[in-house]
Amino acid sequence: MDAKQIKITVADSTTLGLFSLAIVTLVASSQKLGITDGLALDAFGCGHFWHIIAAYSELAILLLAFYVLVAKYLNSMFGKEILCTGKPFMQ
Predict the structure, then answer these.
(1) Is 65 within the bounds of a domain?
(2) Looking at the 3D structure of the chain, how many domains does it have?
């Protein structure tokens, strides 16, 4: 009798989590920048300057999350490194 090797793959939930993070960050930063209307209030009384700094940092996090999302998706789809993500800090 010949033995068959079957590889079972399951969906990787990392891409879904990164997409969720990116969308939430997009909404939060767009509200703080005044692009969309919403409940983005200065709850801690930090002032307008720090409100804008937070908005731009959220926008940078959004772009980084989208890059990692697309890199993970494409690299796993093609089975090779299409977009580089670097080496892990710890093994």
Answers:
(1) yes
(2) 1
